[in-house]
From TrEMBL:
Organism: Vibrio plantisponsor
ABC transporter domain residues: 4-234
PANTHER family: MALTODEXTRIN IMPORT ATP-BINDING PROTEIN MSMX, OSMOPROTECTIVE COMPOUNDS UPTAKE ATP-BINDING PROTEIN GGTA
NCBIfam families, sorted: PRK11650.1
Molecular function terms, GO-annotated: ATP binding
Protein's UniProt name: Sn-glycerol-3-phosphate ABC transporter ATP-binding protein UgpC
Superkingdom of the organism of origin: Bacteria
Matching InterPro entries: AAA+_ATPase, ABC_transporter-like_ATP-bd, ABC_transporter-like_CS, ABC_transpr_MalK-like, ABC_transpr_MalK/UgpC-like, Mo/tungstate-bd_C_term_dom, NA-bd_OB-fold, P-loop_NTPase
Gene (name only): ugpC
A Pfam family hit: ABC_tran
Keywords for this protein: ATP-binding, Nucleotide-binding, Transport
Length: 352
């Protein structure tokens, strides 16, 4: 395993700045996820770490060694791509052993190393098959095995589950997590899927337009987003953001908060769907608040249902247990004022 550092990392394509000065320290054995929407610079950052993209400015260090000018094979990293990139004419065993052959390992050692990794990934019965004879999940495991046989210092994953259906994605998330627990190798994982990030990461770095908006554990980022962008990006359904409330902000926040922010008037508040309730909460009276809303529609989501309603001209989603049927055309939504997030005119959090 190895530590990784990005120091003021910049990447330009002509006049277009794609990565805008990223600084990030990744610890030994850490599983860190680069999360963000398409075009935010996360895959470009990963490819610079891999040596597949030139760096415009800044430094990348692996175990405190600057690797900007090192060839990819000299960095002792292994990358798993979104496309499995398996050689169709080779068997599973040959695909996994190919990199070892290029590195000069003899046939006996290659076979032993492949068999060890195949056992870990439960690929042993498949070693003689060709890629076309495998399912999507099996192909992805082969791609992971091909990376693992090299015993790299750092694993890089570039949206490896995007081509799988929902069931297989769940299975592969579990397998990747178990793989990390077994090997303790440093992992840098790129995805736009917040569920992958929340379930896999030790820490998440959320990227937006080429910069890191926030770094923290999944719990920290979910409970304490530092900007409106992060608040809306993490959580399903996305956080309710009520803009330009004016005096209508008063039911949502403490009077002491209104007094404290003074001239920096809060332009919007955020509250998660899960923090709305149809009955009063058993909390201190000064913390309990409610708003009157108008029902728009109800969506059954299995164990829960999403209630879409209107607060004036604002749209709100509340998530409640599917058994809760106390819903009328007009009703009250209750919440704890301590669960409300307040954002300033620059979309940065004031109170959370």
């Amino acid at each position: 395993m190895a530590s990784v550092q990005f120091r003021n990392l910049i990447k330009n394509y002509g006049d277009t700045e794609v990565v805008k000065g990223i600084n990030l320290n990744i610890q030994h054995g850490e599983f860190i996820v680069l999360l963000g929407p398409s075009g935010c610079g996360k895959s470009t950052t990963l490819r610079m770490l891999a040596g597949l993209e030139d760096i415009t400015d800044g430094e990348i260090c692996i175990e405190n060694e600057v690797v900007n000018e090192l060839h990819p094979i000299e960095r002792n990293i292994a990358m798993v791509f979104q496309s499995y990139a398996l050689y169709p004419h080779m068997t599973v065993e040959e695909n996994m052993a190919f990199a070892l052959e290029n590195l000069g390992f003899d046939k006996v050692k290659r076979k032993r190393m492949v068999e060890e990794i195949a056992e870990v990934l439960e690929l042993t019965p498949l070693l003689s098959r060709k890629p076309k004879e495998l399912s999507g999940g099996q192909r992805q495991r082969v791609a992971m095995g091909r990376a693992m046989v090299r015993s790299p210092d750092v694993f890089l994953f570039d949206e490896p589950l995007s081509n799988l259906d929902a069931k297989l994605r769940g299975q592969m998330r579990s397998e990747i997590k178990l793989l990390h627990e077994r090997t303790k190798t440093t992992v840098v994982y790129v995805t736009h899927d917040q569920i992958e990030a929340m379930t896999l990461a030790d820490r998440i770095a959320i990227l937006n337009n080429g910069v890191i908006e926030q770094i923290g554990s999944p719990k920290e980022i979910y409970n304490h987003p530092n900007s409106k962008f992060v608040a809306k990006f993490i959580g399903t359904p996305e956080m309710n953001i009520l803009e330009n409330l004016g005096d209508a902000v008063k039911p949502f926040i403490f009077q002491s908060t209104i007094d404290r922010v003074g001239d920096v008037k809060p332009l919007s508040v955020g509250i998660r769907a899960q923090d709305f309730h149809l009955t009063p909460l058993n909390i201190e009276a000064e913390n309990l608040a409610s708003i009157s809303v108008q029902l728009r529609q109800v969506e059954l989501m299995g164990a829960v249902k999403h209630i879409e309603c209107s607060f004036g001209n604002k749209r709100i989603i509340a998530e409640v247990p599917y058994t809760d049927d106390k819903i009328h055309d007009k009703f009250e939504l209750y919440f704890d004022k301590n669960k409300v997030h307040v954002f300033d005119k620059n979309d940065k959090v004031i109170i959370q």
